[in-house]
Amino acid sequence: MKKYHHFILGLIVLTGMIITSCxxxxxxxxxxxxxxxxRFFSTEAEILQAVNGAYSTLRILGVNSYWVFGxxxxxxxxxxxxxxGGEQRELIDQFLTIATNDNVxxxxxxxxxxxxxxxxxxxxxxxxIMTDDNKKxxxxxxxxLRAFYYFQLVRQFGGVPxxxxxxxxxxxxxxxxxxxxxxIYGQIISDLTAAIADLPSSYTGKDLGRATxxxxxxxxxxxxxxxxxxxxALAQLQPLKALGYSLLPVYKSIFDPKNKNNAESIFExxxxxxxxxxxxxxxxxxxxxxxxxxxxxxxxxSLSLTSGWNTPTADLISAYEPNDVRKAVSLNTxxxxxxxFVTAPHVIKYNHGFVNRGNTDxxxxxxxxxxxxxxxxxxxxxxxxxxxxxxxxxxxxxIRAGLLPLARGAINTQSLLRLAIEKERRVELAFExxxxxxxxxxxxxIEVMNAHGIQEKALKPTVIRPAGFxxxxxxxxxxxxxxxxxxxxxxxxx
Amino acid sequence: xxxxxTWFFISFKxxxxxxxxxxxxxxxxxxxxxxxxxxxxCHNVNSQGNTSLIKGIxxxxxxxxxxxxxxxxxxxxxxFTSGTTTDSAGGFTFSRIIAGGPYGFTFSAVGYEPQxxxxxxxKNDITLSLLVKMKSNxxxxxxxxxxxxxxxxxxxxTGAVGIINAAQTKDLPVPSIDQRMVGQVAGMQVSxxxxxxxGGTSIRIRGAGSIGAGNDPLFVIDGFPITRSFGQTSNxxxxxxxxxxxxxxILKDASSTAIYGSRGxxxxxxxxxxxxxxxxxxxxxxxxxxxxxxxxxxxxTVLNGTEYAQYQKEWIEDYIQATQNRVATEADIPAYxxxxxxxxxxxxxxxxxxxxxxxxxxxxxxxxxSENTRYSFSFGxxxxxxxxxxxxxxxxxxxMNFEANLSRRLKLGFIxxxxxxxxxxxxxxxxxxxxxxxxxxxxxxxxxxxxxATGKRTPFIEGGGRPAPNPLNSLEFSGTTRKEFRGLGSAxxxxxxxxxxxxxxxxxxxxxxxxxxxxxxxxxxxxxxxPPVVPNATITQFSSFNWLSEALLSYNRELNNNHRIExxxxxxxxxxxxxxxxxxxxxxxDNLVQTINAAGxxxxxxxxxxEWSLISYLARINYTFKNKYILTATGxxxxxxxxxxNNRYGYFPSAAVGWRASDEHFLQNIxxxxxxxxxxxxxxxxxxxxxNYTSISNIGSSNAVFGGLLxxxxxxxxxxxxxxxxxxxxQFDAGFDLGIFKDRIVFTADYYSKITKSMLxxxxxxxxxxxxxxxxxxxxxxxxxFEFTLSSQNFTGKFTWNTRANISFxxxxxxxxxxxxxxxxxxxxxxxxYTHITEVGKPIGQFxxxxxxxxxxxxxxxxxxxxxxTSVVGSIKYKDVDGNGIIEQIKDFTVIGKSQPDYSWGLSxxxxxxxxxxxxxxxxxxxxxxxxxxxxxHNNNEGIAFPGQFNIDRKYVLNRWRSPSQPGNGVSPSxxxxxxxxxxxxxxxxxxxxxxxxxxxxxxxxxPPQILSGTNVIKTARMYFSGQNxxxxxxxxxxxxxxxxxxxxxxxxxxxxxxxxxxxxxxxARSINVGINLGF
Lengths: 494, 1080
Hints:
- The structure holds 2 protein chains of 2 kinds.
- Chain A has helices spanning about 1-20, 25, 45-65, 65-70, 85-95, 100-125, 130-155, 180-200, 215-225, 230-235, 280-285, 315, 325-330, 370-385, 390-400, 415-430, 435-440, 445-460, 480-490; strands spanning about 35, 75-80, 265-270, 310, 330-335, 340-345, 365-370.
- By secondary structure, chain A is mostly helical.
- Among the domains of chain A are: about 1-200 and about 445-495, Serine Threonine Protein Phosphatase 5, Tetratricopeptide repeat (Alpha Horseshoe), CATH 1.25.40; about 275-360, no CATH class.
- Chain A starts with a helix and ends in a 6-residue tail after the last helix.
- In chain B, α1 packs antiparallel against α2 (about 25-30).
- Chain B has a 22-stranded antiparallel β-barrel. A 5-stranded mixed β-sheet of chain B has the order 10-15-16-13-14.
- Chain B is mainly beta.
- The interface between A and B is large, with 110 and 92 residues.
- β1 of chain A pairs antiparallel with β32 of chain B.
């Protein structure tokens, strides 16, 4: 009996020991569907993935935010009809934005997510073994992207918290407060200068679409222009021609997904229609609300609350000169529903059919050579006044659009040429998220937007709130999102 | 009917018996047993040779036969022992008992006080017949209570423990056990958060102590801590048939829960299932059927057809007046609105989607065993149709318990409990909250009939409202079917090393495998999307495997009469791996083949694997000295894979003392006081529900595109926190148990104070960090309160009346929050504002919004009052909290209510007379409030497009401001402007959530044995009528003051932060049932 008794006891002890023996690893369970961060960023392949991850934020900002703040805040677009449910965007359009606005929050948050991903690359890359050339390129790409995100932020919010290293734990998540605009611009310029030095002038094959030296140059040019440093800007913009960019002969073909990353394209946000997670959807967002499949040709979407955005305003439509081919490429004033014409202006620049329901293949142009030509024209006008090269640059763009060259005699002062450049940029780059920034950069935003507000109120008395479009210098900046005001004690914009 | 009458009755009977048998000790032995009657009857039976026969019947207080009672006969001289159990008629027999004596009998059964008889002498060829009455020990101190990793006599308990016996809640026709716990235990609030069949309940033990780690208690089924918690549509207790449950113990204080360490801080619910007992097979069948309805009172009221058309017409008139300053002409009014009365009552969509739903249940079980093996097997089916059409719940559960004594010292056993459930769900309470079936049925246009002239359902409801599919089509054709197979299995061996010292090893498995499938066919459509549409589907598959290995050494010993020890030492390891796969499929060519292979594309998919493990050492000693002084010490160490590497092991000690004052001789003179025990405990417990990989920085995928190809991208998605660890609760408890008049009245009172610190707080961090939240151990919450329980046997004997009452008062207060005690804002209103606020010094998740003043009566009022830039005359007027003259979000929000009640209570009465029993359970909650967030659409008097698109709250809209001369009720605003304002939470949405609910009334009838004896098969039969949720007295305007919004909105990360919000939940039904229980 005693033997038996020991046997059983031994068995129980043994079982316990077997389990104890694997104890060391028993509690050490890593995730299976994700990767443990402490072991990442350690090989070249992982650094490249991290760089790609830093680009991926652009896709989200492109479909959700950039058009809201770059285009809809301007006089180019509005929401066509009221009460479509996306009231917070309406409020942005009418200069009634408040700090809890989800769109503002999303724009701010995604930009900083992008910045943090760039910082992750830059924080880890130095110790990773790879060729010097690759290391330089990856760093330059990350710096380009970081500058890009900061440039969006600083123009919409003014001075923002400067984050140039990634935070390692929640304990040091607080920022040092809002840096001044100058500090942010200083960082942008330093990042772009470094990027220009190390970025290749072009890519091939599976790398097409990455940041190039040309992209960094045109962005730096625009940054400098925003700071009124026109001569320095020219020094960045003029080498673009030598980098091989040229205008495509046909305006329409610039935006065709078949022509992605063409000779005119300097930088565009890359989408892939065949992958739902990587696809764009501009055609749907910009189609008139409740237009069904009439505009998109896609019977599977309702186009209710997600559509009807970024609709061309009456004064933009009238800004196109007769015979301007760009108008028909860029917008439509309505659509046919069972043969009947429904008036509903909408953007068609990114309407090239869909790949799968809700998913389109359209890239979004950020910088292209026509933009560069007009920026150069602007710089020259600002530094030298009325000059032939400015006219030449504008005319290249106009002639492609089927228009006559500018009448040199009538535009005989610097300020008239300014307006001509502004107008040309407005129609050439319509719906490419430049208009708002151009208006702010040239100091015209308050004047233009108040005039636009009066026009809008007259046209849509029931849509525009009484307090809307009362544009003051304070309205040029967006409110800092409430979370960062509350948690980070940031000072709110006036 | 005093106890003394009963006593006289018994003693008379005993005296008469004594005259015929020489059993001199019987009388003496019975003297103190007030409720025990032994009737010795004389029979002339056939001779059994040289032996004698002992027969007996055991009954309860109500003269009902008691099956399953263990009977042991022992010859105290020769130590001969034999045992058996009673059959379903309560009878037992011993044959071949050798003449002589003295013999003694011991009778024991769970739920009853053990009884002993002694001093019998058995004579040859004589039959001894016994009739034994056993007293329910619901309140008895000798009752054995199952606690964590062992059991104790109730009198030795030092912790605060609530007990629910099977008998206490039998005949409650509900599909899951949580609904039988409503109102039963002080300090345990069981709320019907939703009425979804097979869906979840909210259970809180001593309040909500956690903000970010969940507040569900830990459920332990037959020793196995299961790890799931309640969800909107899921209920972790669905795997048990309520009829299989023997007892439930609710562990509340730290002394009782510390043995569960890092999982104990929300309280522990220990569920024990029925086991087989030695004896001939006993077959039991129970069944009920009934119907459920949604009470008329509490249904949301919207405009009928005429009213709705009239309202839309007026909407246009007012709009034209406001914007064009002219009176509308007939041309302004669309033709279909010109004659509102043509629509009559119109369609009440809410009533259309509801039905009287049937439910039924049938269970069959067999149990029995020989001296060395015991078995119990049961199988049951529940079928519950939902009160919302085309929803329902069906479940099969089997359970098999088997145990064998391989030797005098070694016992082996196993338990197998597979279950399979199928739920048919609608999208109620889902993430698309405004468009879910329930809310949609409130706002759909009443102008459109359900069916057209040919009797076919109108496929798409448009015309005078927001266009959407017919909800009946959505329910019938595009509901979700969720299937789950889940099984518990366990095998164990127990070895008695020396008397009282036992080693036990068990291996347990919780396996589940399930899927859910949703197909949106071409003929249903969507909001704004008329059919035909392109069909799509979502399929989800999930599986989990959880194993627990447990080695326990336990010691139970009574050393002379002075020392009694219960001790346990254990080592356990537990591991779980759960996998989840979801595939969204699209572009089906038609509805004919719905499996994924027929889909045109797979636009998105996801897979996740979650794994964790836990290593624990545990120990407890319960020591009783001289039956008076009790000391309990408990400790557990938990190492968890979830915790950061710097804080991987947690230690959870607790200690408790008890003093049975009534056993002190100086108190024994107090005749009315039968027992008095003081208890106090203090200890630490934890909450480990922080997610499996929260402590590490996770790298996820976020791809880019280059050259027209996917370029793999990886990004950090969360922050590293190697210090992350469990939440710790420190709880003090002091209480006493007082028994009066031989424990006919038992009163228990407890005071507790539970402080949860190092709270796992999902803290908002600056968005500029690239992250929005991080889980940190910060903050402190205190729950403290009083609990009182009273149970009383008001009448005993032929007419019995028992009462159990409990009441608990809990105060929840936040003592500290994040680093700088910053307020936590949570929830998301229709306007993007917050709905709840959590701040130091206040309860968690108070309602946060505008304070309503009224409406701007006229232009003068508008000009003089603070206002929003959207305000117009007639629009809603709020308090200018910050006094800056402008009404704006957040700045003018203030605390407008709280959901935490002042107290909650339960009251059960059981009355029985002859063969009739009546049980009534009332429950109530007092002092809490509820926020009707559904008002976001339900009060949407301006519509989203012209004209007003939502059908809305009738009372609200008919009393609206229309002009200074038609000011309405002064609260409902005009339809002409200011629409941003009221979609934020405001004080008019806050309502009193106090209620008194008639939870259950059951009338049952035991068919007398003499009627059944003719059948020769059926030994017991019991019939009952039972009504659940029969009535509710509340000021709340909708049906369920317990409602909790299940889908989280905005940046809210935890249910705890947004309590008490009704977004139009699945209604909770009233049900009426008839049932029968048969014993064979």
